[in-house]
Amino acid sequence: MASTGSNSAPSPAGGDGETGLEALALAKVAEAADAIAAAASAGEVVRAIHAVAALLFPVDSAAVAGTVEEPFRTQIIEAVSLSNDTRNSWRRAFYDGPAFPTMSRILLGSPPTEVIQALVPALSEKKDSREDDRTFYLNLERLLILCLLDNKGVSQIVVEFTHSKKHGNDVPNPDKTIFISRVAQLLASVPDKARLGASAALTSTSFFKHVVSQLLAGAEAATVQLTADKDANEHCALSSLFLFVGEVLSRVSRRGSTGILVAELIPRIRNHLQRCVPSDHKAISPEMIQHVSQSQFWFNMVEVMRDQHSIERLTEELLRQLASQHASDEEAYWILWTLFNQSFKRLTVMRAMFVDKFLLWKTFPLCCLRWILHYAVFECAPNSATETLMQRTPNFFGTLQSLVSIWSRKEFVQSYSVEQQAYITAAIGLCLEKLTKKELETTKDVLNSILQGVSCRLESPIDLIRKMASAVALTFSKVVDPKNPLYLDDNCCENVDWEFGILSPKKIKAPLHAVESKNKPKSRENKRNAGEKKAKAIKHDVPDTRAKIVEIKSVDHDQMSDTVMNGQFEEEECDEESMNIDASSDSSLEPYDLSDDDTDLQKKFSHLSDLAAALRKPDDPDGVENALSSAEKLVRASPDELRHNSSDLVRALVHVRCSDLAMEGEEDSAEEKRQKALVALLVTCPFESLDVLTKLLYSSSVDISQRILIIDVMTEAAQELAETKIVKTEQRHGNLITDNSPSWLVPSNRGPPGAGPWREVSEPGTLLSWSHRYEREVPSRSGQVKSGKSRKWGLGKAKDFQVEWSKNRLPLYAAAFMLPVMQGYDKRSHGVDLLNRDFVVLGKLVYMLGVCMKCMAMHPEASALAPALLDMIKSRDVSQHAEAYVRRSVLFAASCILISLHPSYVASSLIEGNQDISTGLEWIRTWALQVAEADPDTECTSMAMTCLRLHSEMALQTSRALESAGHSKTSRGLPTKLDNIIIPFGNM
Questions:
Q1: Residue-wise over 836-853: b if at least 16 C-beta within 10 A, else e?
Q2: Average pLDDT in the 854-875 region?
Q3: Which Pfam families does this one have (predicted)?
């Protein structure tokens, strides 16, 4: 043992600077180590450690000496007391040199549980900015890294708890339980208590990765050891071990590191399952897993976590990581079976997690859904030999009944997101694929629920929702009659894709921006039962996509007999013709041109009255078809009789039934001709045609398909009237917004003689080009040397406006397009119910109004019509409609209002106190914010964000206009309160 009588400390000057002092500190540590190693009593250990501590800290030697006996008490009291400067020098040499790591290894010989209890609480104490405090915490963190990570202290803790003693019969010591929980809590709190600039090893990602790795490896090895040791008190030891494992894993998950936990878990359980399968076997079975000793740990790992929230997070992350790693169905099933089977059988809450939360409330990729169904509902491994032979459990039928009962409700279609609907639809489809007709007959109300759910989805204007109905109907028909599958869609295939394009692992995690239908033509059956056909040809144009939606019709039961009779007639005709052929005539063998025979029989229409009369003859389908083919061309010719006959022709076109009269396969062509003819009438003769169409829209003489047709042609006509056309300067004449007048925002040519052409100022504009300006050169005034510029606000592309400008004819007719149809939309009379049953018409109507506003962007007429449209969409029945289709249309219309109003008009409205505009624009902002935060439809949330962006841009431009007005009109005071419209950066 080193000299124990020497209590004096060598002077710092005795070494060669800092290096010499570090050597002296290391020598003092070596002396203490030798003394501790040779110590025969606790007093010797205390004296040796005190000799080092007195060099570094202001130790109360008298208090320490009171704990030991002579002669060590005297040696401690007689220790030399150092000045603060000397002690600081010793401290720097101790911590910066090799003395500290050496002393750490000596002190860390104690159990890791004691090290954790001593060091971790100190991390949470108040951290001052002094150099000594930073050094203290730095070395405290170094001790924890050395103990827990470098020396694998977590594995040592597992071993310590494995060999713990038993207290009582089968219950661990209560104090021991509290102690284990305390250690787990301190261990999991290390990353939270570490300093901001602490070592990367103490960050949650790195620290928990090492902790979980040690924990799983140590616990699995300890379980094997206890199982093999027959003399060990296995139950109590496992209880202590599993308590510690469960506490740590739960706290790691609670702290947001579930992904790290699962990333360590998956490869280990994969290796375990590979050990369970003998080399001469390809398939795995439950017996194989149960016979392996390590399985005892994996069977209990989830159950001992106890914190149900942590278990749910772990399970969800496990499923998603397995999906991202493209795990096979068999592998995923056996991983779930190994981890959850024991607790799944024992605990009701675990069964509810899989069957209720993971099927009805969560949304996973399709592969995860298959795994959940196989494990928790089918209760058999996928692709196993016994899968087709197994009888369905009561849990299977109960789950199917719950799924279809929820799926069939109209409220579910309206209130749930498209992703959630696709997920539950896929769950129903996968269950139906396992069902037989005999089993279906034993289920209660499944048939009625499926039919009800299919029916309400076929009425939806959203293409993806109708695809779900078609998929379930096809799968269900295969159960009822496998030889006669029911295809409700031309795009349906025999093997249904239950992913629906949105349940893939990549798309399920991100917000969807495009769940709408694409422009795919739908087929239409040309026969109707009893002469009635309820077609729902819907074009979804929110915001810019367009697609037709057609309800499936019933096939005429007489179609088969008609075909047979026609075939028999043709056969008899051929026999008669074969008897009359003159075989000796050479001329009979020469071909005859029949290409123009049909044109000779077609009637040429030259008068609109003849067209209308032909369209009203349903018993002459060829005449109707010929009239439809000629209608657009004749209307576009603008004959003199157009204004007198347009109303009658509009009525005839609206009431003609194209699907009844067109040949099979040509129904869409006839519908297109009718629609083009109506658009031509609206464009060439707007006021007369609009007067008829707006009255027919709410008339009891038309059905829903005709109302949709009316709105569609009004939308297309508005867009055509607003198309940009080029007009040369020599044609300029007339008043504002007349047919041949230039646009209102093009600067006038009036000015002094010799003024140059208007040109756009080359400076960056805003998103909506609200701040574009134009300038031109003007001649100098008398006495003025430098030529000046005259500027005017406007909107448009850079071009020479002296040569040409754009023309928009819609503003002249915009009021006739919009105002009449906005009256009566909320009334229920004569078969019209737009707010409820006919919500598709309402959605398309609001969309059409938005298109009209968009086509009048920056025109004064938009400012006049915007308040009326705002009043309509602000209605609670419209803006908060249960159908997402209507809400999307309202968002589109609101966005069109924002881009159509000129900022100078909004600014002048605020200055003049126009409450209609300011209140309406503020309502758009608050309502769009609510939709973006809480709407279940992802397309609505995306459109709401766009609407908010447009509102901010409009408000910014309005604020600039207000500033300009304040500078130019100082005599006219601005309003003292302009908070009716939110202006971004208004406080800057």
A1: eebbbbbbbbbbbbbbbb
A2: 92
A3: TELO2_ARM, Telomere_reg-2
Return the higher-pLDDT residue of 69 and 426.
426
Rg over alpha carbons for the chain, rounded to the nearest Å, is 42
Task: Write out the two tokens for 814.
Answer: 């915009």
What is d(CA 543, CA 69) in angstroms, rounded to the nearest whole number? 89
Amino acid code (one letter) for 245: V
Tell me the C-alpha distance between 972 and 911, whole Å: 10
Q: Are 480 and 437 in contact (CB under 8 A)?
A: yes
The better pLDDT of the pair 192, 741 is held by: 192
> At what angle are helices 84-96 and 42-56 packed, to 10 degrees?
110
**470-518 pLDDT, tens digit each:** 999 999 998 888 888 888 876 667 788 898 888 887 766 533 333 333 3
Say which amino acid occupies 774: Y
- Decide the pairing of beta strands 725-728 and 804-807: antiparallel
Query: Which of 239-253, 641-655, 734-748, 893-907 shows the lowest per-residue confidence on average (mean pLDDT)?
Result: 734-748
Q: Tell me the pLDDT tens digit for each residue of 622-635.
A: 888 888 888 888 88
In the DSSP assignment, the letter for residue 545 is: -
Residue ranges of the alpha helices (H) in 416-558? 418-433, 437-442, 446-458, 463-480
Residue closest to 963 by CA, chosen among 949, 972, 952, 974: 974
Pairing of strands 759-760, 773-777: antiparallel
Q: What share of the chain is helix, strand, coil (3-state, %, to 5)?
A: 60, 5, 35
Tell me how far apart the alpha carbons of residues 804 and 386 are, in angstroms, rounded to a whole number: 79
Taking CB atoms within 8 Å and a gap of at least 24, the contacts of 478-482 are 479/432, 479/435, 479/436, 479/437, 479/440, 480/437, 480/440
pLDDT, tens only, 239-255: 788 889 999 999 999 99
List, in sequence order, every residue forming a beta bridge with 776; answer none if it has no partner. 790
Cis peptide before 686 (omega within 30 of 0): no
Q: Within its chain, how far is the Cα of 207 from the centroid? A: 32
946/849 Cα distance (integer angstroms): 19
- As a dihedral over the C-alpha atoms of residue 970, residue 971, residue 975, residue 981, rounded to 10 degrees, the angle is -40
Q: How many CA atoms lie within 13 A of 555 on its CB side?
A: 10
Alpha helices in 685-808 (DSSP H): 686-697, 704-721
pTM of the entire predicted model: 0.69
Cβ 212 vs Cβ 249: under 8 Å: yes
Structure token pair of residue 345 = 């059988």
Distance CA(74)–CA(72), nearest Å, equals 5
Cis peptide before 543 (omega within 30 of 0): yes
Within 8 A by CB and 6+ apart from 530, the residues are none
Tell me the residue ranges of DSSP E strands in 679-813.
725-728, 759-760, 773-777, 789-793, 804-807
Cα distances (Å, whole numbers) of residue 862 to 585, 811, 818, 869: 77, 8, 11, 10
Residue 693 predicted with pLDDT over 80? yes
> Residue 200 and residue 335: Cα distance in Å, rounded?
32
Tokens 């302009």, located at residue: 978
Whether the CB-CB separation of 233 and 166 falls below 8 Å is answered with: yes
Whole-number Å distance between alpha carbons of 449 and 581: 63
Paired tokens of 16: 């060669």
Q: How confident is the model at residue 601 (pLDDT cuts 50, 70, 90)?
A: very low
Burial (Cβ within 10 Å: 0-12, 13-18, ≥19) of residue 574: exposed
Using the predicted structure, report yes or no on whether residue 684 has a pLDDT greater than 80. Answer: yes
pLDDT at position 93 over 60: yes
Q: Is the pLDDT of residue 99 over 60?
A: yes
∠ CA 498-504-510, nearest 5°, is: 130
Which pair of tokens denotes residue 293?
């000793």
Three-state secondary structure call for residue 356: helix
Model confidence over 321-336: pLDDT tens digits?
Answer: 999 999 999 999 999 9
